[in-house]
Design goal:
The chain has 241 residues and is an alpha/beta fold. The protein folds into 2 domains: 67 residues, Hypothetical PUA domain-like, domain 1 (Ribosomal Protein L25, Chain P, Beta Barrel), CATH 2.40.240; 159 residues, SPOUT methyltransferase, trefoil knot domain (Alpha/beta knot), CATH 3.40.1280.10. The protein contains 6 helices and 12 strands. The strands form 2 sheets. Strands 6, 7, 8, 9, 10, 11 and 12 form a 7-stranded parallel β-sheet that branches. The chain has a 5-stranded mixed β-sheet with strand order 1-3-4-5-2. Helix 3 links the parallel strand 7 and strand 8. The longest helix is centred in the last third of the chain and has 16 residues. The radius of gyration is 20 Å and the shape is elongated. The structure holds S-adenosylmethionine.
Length: 241
């Protein structure tokens, strides 16, 4: 029977492999989830798929699990970046969690001309991505990048990566990814802050060869709603849904 508890570990997984637990992991498994020696735990590390493991040692400050059998192969998401301007803390957390659940390969917070929040805690956001992968059954954890300026990201934009630019100025238009122009391959979705994009940013983004300007319907969505809507549309059209 497969384990009910899933945990991300930064440790190799494979036949005959044992996995040492740190204090936090031991506290979660043996203190919070009340598991003991012999219990099953599903582990993944973002590289080796999901493995069913058995508890060999259970202590307050640590423990050891032993790999029994692989229960899922590694399933990589499509090569999709979600680029967004951080908003209020809880809503930023929501965007990262949903992006990880919905299948983003990388999550990139950017500072735009009208960004509300100039700072993020990258480590906290990365932990949210890990938790989301743990609960959704994924075997991959997207990297959450450090905050960078949108202009700097665009300065070094990879030539082959197409961009779904969600532009609130197109509200009410019926623009979506033109099937002929939008082909599979590396992609990114860009969502702006509460204040939207500046004229200068919009001009630059419209001029980019890789840019596909998209409307998300007849109403202005909050940035967190827009991120979920855009990922849904992209995944259905070009992704792994
Ligand atoms: N303050 C802006 C305004 O009133 O025009 C709205 C910004 S909106 C809250 C945040 C971001 O969500 C936008 O920058 C855009 O990327 C995306 N967005 C929201 N609604 C959209 C729509 N209908 N079409 C395209 N993008 C949208």
């Amino acid at each position: 029977m497969n384990a009910k508890v899933r945990l991300y570990v930064d440790h190799p997984l494979g036949a005959g492999q044992t996995v040492p637990l740190d204090r936090d992991q031991a506290h979660y498994l043996f203190g919070v989830m009340r598991l003991s020696v012999g219990a099953r735990v599903a582990l993944f590390n973002g590289r080796d798929g999901e493995w069913q493991t058995e508890v060999l040692e259970a202590g307050k400050r640590g423990g050891v699990l032993a790999c029994v059998a692989q229960s899922k192969p590694l399933q990589l998401p499509p090569d999709l970046w979600l680029i967004f301007a951080p908003i209020k803390k809880a809503r930023t957390d929501f965007i990262v969690e949903k992006a990880a659940e919905m299948g983003a390969a990388r999550i990139l917070p950017v500072a735009t001309d009208f960004t509300n929040s100039e700072r993020i805690r990258q480590d906290r956001l990365q932990a949210h991505a890990v938790e989301a992968a743990e609960q959704c059954g994924g075997t991959y954890v997207p990297e959450v990048a450090e905050l960078q300026k949108l202009s700097a990201l665009l300065d070094h934009w990879p030539a082959e990566r197409q961009l779904m630019f969600c532009d609130e100025a197109e509200v009410g238009q019926r623009l979506f990814l033109d099937v002929a122009a939008a082909s599979a391959g590396p992609w990114a979705i860009l969502i702006g802050p509460e204040g939207g994009f500046s004229d200068a940013e919009r001009k630059r983004l419209h001029a980019m060869e890789q840019s596909h300007v998209v409307s998300l319907g007849p109403r202005i969505l909050r940035a967190d709603t827009a991120a979920v809507a855009a990922m849904t549309l992209w995944q259905k059209r070009l992704g792994d849904w």
